[in-house]
Structures are given as C-alpha cells and as structure tokens.
Known about the structure:
This protein has helices at 100-103, 106-111, 117-123, 135-150, 155-179, 186-202, 210-215, 220-231, 235-253, 258-264, 270-281, 285-292, and strands spanning 8-12, 22-25, 31-32, 39-43, 46-51, 55-60, 63-68, 72-75, 81-85, 91-98, 126-129, 300-303. It is an alpha+beta fold and 312 residues long. The protein has two domains: 8-180, Jelly Rolls; 186-292, Orthogonal Bundle (Arc Repressor Mutant, subunit A). The longest helix is centred in the middle third of the chain and has 25 residues, at 155-179.
Amino acid sequence: MRKSHKRLIEYRVYSLPDTFPIMVLGGDHWQISDVKSDKLHFHNCLEVGLCHTDSGTIEFEDKPIPFKAGDVTVVSRNILHTSYSSPGEKSLWTYLFMEPERLIPPYLRQSLEKAEMLAEIEQNICNVFSSAEYPQIHFYAEMIAKNLQNAPLNYQTCVRSLCVSFMIELMRIYLNNSASEKDRSIENILVIAPALDYVQENYSQQFKIDRLADACNMSFTHFRRIFGEIMHCAPLEFLHRTRILHARSLLLSTNMSVLEVSERVGYVSISGFNRHFLRETGQCPTEWRRSNLSVRKQNVMKFNGWTEPEKL
C-alpha cells in the first residue's frame, strides 16, 4: 500500500532585539509562488503581512482564506500556516515580525483600557483583514513598515506608538466579534480574563483550580458556572487543553522526549499526560508526533528566521 504523503513543518525563529523587538522584510523580491508548498510553518512571534499585488490563499492548518492586494494578514505565534498565489500570479508582500507585549512600553500598556486582552490577541489570532473593511489595520501596518524601512528621525518612538494603535484596532475588532456571540458577552469575557491570563502564565506549574476563582474574586461555584457558559468547558478542562496545545508545539519544534514534554507543560505523571493528549487529539503523543512528521525528529526544520524569500 502506498504511504500517504506527510507535510513538512518548519519552525521559523526570528531573533528580535530585546530593546526593539520588531523587524521588517520587504522589497521587490518578496513574492509568493502560485505553487502550493508541501510545508506548513509557524513562528516564534507575531507575523503581519501586507499584500501589495495580485491574490491567493493563506491556509491556517486546513482552513483556507483568500487574500488580495491591499489585504493584511495577522498570524500569531505557533499557528501552522502557508500561503500561495493564484494561478499565474506572484503576489508581492512586506512582512513584519514583532512581539507587541515587549514592544509597547509598560506605561502605555498600563494606560490601555482592557490591556489584559493584548496577550490573548497576540497568541490567538489568524485572519485576513481587507483594506476596504479594515482601513485602519492596513494604514497602521503600512506606516510601521515604512518607518522601519526608511528609519526617519525618532522612527523607533513612532513605530512603538503605531504598534499601540495597531493593537488597539485588533482589540476593537476582537471585542466587536465577541459581542456578536450570544453567550460570550464582552462583560463576561473580561470577568474571567484574570483566570485566562493566570492559566497562560502558569500552565506549567502545579496549582489548585480554585486559584482561578480567587483571581476573579468569585466563589468557586459561581466561577465554574460563568466559566463554563463562556468557554464551553470546565476550568480544569481548559487548563488541560492549554497544556496539550503547548505540548503539541514542543513535539513539533523540538527533539524533546515525550516524558520531557509532559514535564515541561506541567504533568507530574506520563500516564496523565498521555490520557489527556489522547482525549484532545485522538492519538497518543508518540503517534501524533509521528503522524505530523514525515521523518521523525528531522521534518521540523528550525530556521533562524527567513531574511530572504524562497526562489520562485
């Protein structure tokens, strides 16, 4: 029987400066082929792409979304994706790679209303924004790129300010979308935001689940009910989902053993890790890694960031 083709995975690491964690890649040679790649990739930071010409498709794992000239793509870290132009076209792009939480100065973060949403947006967004529907997203992304490319007087201060405006627009879009969901009102999301933040920051540690209720200043019974209405799962289940999500990233991007991965994401027993991994993915960790790697421990190609485009 002929073996099914397994897509390669690339982990592209961009070493951004600690003092100014952002970079731009652009020019006439940054074009995307119309041939669909057999590789998916993910980054260690937020990617913002500006499409200047032509059209095509960007795929987030198995979800294809079309793009065209004037669109802006925003892809969080650790989200598998690939893109390709329409037949006979070679779309031209400029890319930004950034870490908004480190790029935006603390005093500006503290002044933002609902600033706690920045981390969630930075980690959980993968979408295409048209310039017609979201002109501000396109404007701020374009101005950030131009300042980085031309480096005029005080450009770093300008870029930081533009990034604040860019993230505010994403926050507004996120809130508007949330408001359209009946059981995910903005008010309720903000009520449990401290618990979501706590899980993201401490998922690898051991803590009692009622600590999440304490973070939201609720009784555990009330917190569990509100959390379930909003997230459609119990708090403990959300913790396990978060741990397994990070475990999947480690299994793809490192050569760590399954035991090492389980310990890194917070499990004290390998049996517990295997049980929850199977529940979330339908496979045990070893099987899942093998099914997502065409050559075990060799098909995830770790790059120190791409600074030159692929040859078309």
